[in-house]
Design goal:
Elements (H helix, E strand, L loop, with lengths): L11 E2 L1 H13 L5 H16 L10 H10 L9 E5 L3 E5 L5 H19 L1 E9 L10 H5 L3 E6 L21 E5 L7 E5 L6 H10 L8 E3 L4 E2 L8 E3 L5 H15 L23 E8 L8 H15 L17 H11 L1 E2 L2 H13 L6
Helix pairs in contact: 1-2
Protein name: Putative oxidoreductase YjmC
Pfam family, one: Ldh_2
GO molecular function: oxidoreductase activity
């Protein structure tokens, strides 16, 4: 270690180098440089904050959809409906990060003006972790929320057997006095499909309880994921939450939900019409302002002070430690799993771009 920095190794990559690689890969498939740079920055940011199942790991899927014609490399985003507090963005079937970043920024702009901003997206695509689109609200003193219809159906309706629902994630954020905002990002299934795909890439089994086969028995081999389905969190409660997200992120925006959802990995030629939304809420609209973050910090301190149960670690809140760990990764580089590094080298050869 020199000057507090960890020397780069084959699988520890400088953040700027990884951004550059991703941008080169996207431009090789016709994405304009400015769009490629924006998407690459968000993809790498996902890895910086530890969401490595939804960051650079997804590059192969995005490139396949661009190459297959299922994703538009040169979209023209447009606001097709708007009020002082709401908006609807059409992503023109471009890379999902572009539409979601635009929705996040517009929602925050509206919240600063009238107290709340809610912006839906249609014509989108997979956009990485929702945390990317709620953390900025908290860092700006706002509350944030975002949700999405999953990019493939892996779950039947509760008690049914047809795959009609996705992992349908949802995320929340809030400002807190201190280094870490509250950031909570989850799938409505016990595990996100991205976690299963990373286990498959690394040759590791799934824990019991993530998936079951069509015979109802536990499925632990990730290579057999197509033979079963994901389980919702909390049984019927997770199913109900997933349906609610589908209504708000899909149906309300004129986007896909139910049998209309296209599996963006298996089908690289069809438009997905992925639906999402982003919300921003200003505490000032409730007369709180900075008092909100101070009160949250007080309440969180009480929670962290709760003596842990035997065998448990001390209490943590969603988002704790993320700011410090992200700063360390920005300085030291991102440690890529060997299987992912190998796949990125394969992509460099397949798409004729310079390796990392």
């Amino acid at each position: 270690m020199k000057n507090g920095l960890v020397p780069m190794t084959d699988n520890v990559i400088a953040v700027d180098a990884l951004r550059g690689f991703v941008a080169r890969a996207l431009t090789a498939q016709g994405v304009p440089l400015s769009d490629a740079a924006q998407v690459a920055a968000l993809m790498v940011e996902a890895d910086v904050y530890g969401y490595n199942t939804h960051g650079v790991f997804r590059l192969r899927q995005y490139l396949a959809r661009l190459k297959g014609g299922g994703c538009n490399p040169t979209p023209t985003l447009s606001v097709v409906q708007e009020t002082v507090a709401t908006g609807l963005i059409d992503g023109d079937n471009g890379l999902g990060h572009l539409a979601m970043a635009a929705a996040r920024d517009l929602a925050m702009e509206k919240a600063r003006k009238v107290g709340i901003g809610w912006v839906g997206v249609r014509g989108g695509n997979h956009a990485g972790p929702l945390a990317l689109y709620v953390r900025p609200q908290a860092e700006a003193g706002l509350l944030g929320m975002a949700a999405a219809v999953g990019s493939a159906n892996h779950v039947p309706p509760y008690g049914g057997s047809d795959l009609l629902i996705g992992t349908n994630p949802i995320a929340f954020s809030a400002p807190v006095d201190g280094p870490d905002p509250f950031v909570f990002d989850m799938a409505t299934t016990v595990a996100a499909m991205g976690k299963i795909k990373t286990l498959l890439q690394q040759g590791e089994p799934m824990p019991e309880g993530w998936m079951v086969g069509k015979d109802g028995k536990p499925l632990t081999d990730p290579s057999r994921k197509s033979e079963g389905f994901l389980l919702p969190i909390g049984g019927p409660k997770g199913f109900g939450l997933s349906v609610a997200i589908g209504l708000l992120a899909g149906v309300l925006n004129g986007a896909a939900f139910g049998s209309d959802v296209v599996d963006f990995t298996a089908d690289t030629t069809s438009q997905t019409n992925t639906g999402q939304f982003v919300m921003a809420l200003d505490p000032n609209a409730f007369g709180l302002g900075d008092d909100f973050g101070q009160e949250v910090a007080r309440i969180f301190a009480e929670m962290r002070a709760s003596p842990p149960l035997s065998g448990h670690d001390p209490v943590r809140l969603p988002g704790d430690g993320k700011t410090l760990s992200a700063a360390a990764i920005r300085s030291n580089g991102i440690a890529l799993k060997p299987a992912l590094r190998y796949d990125l080298d394969l992509l460099a050869a397949e798409y004729d771009i310079a390796k990392l």
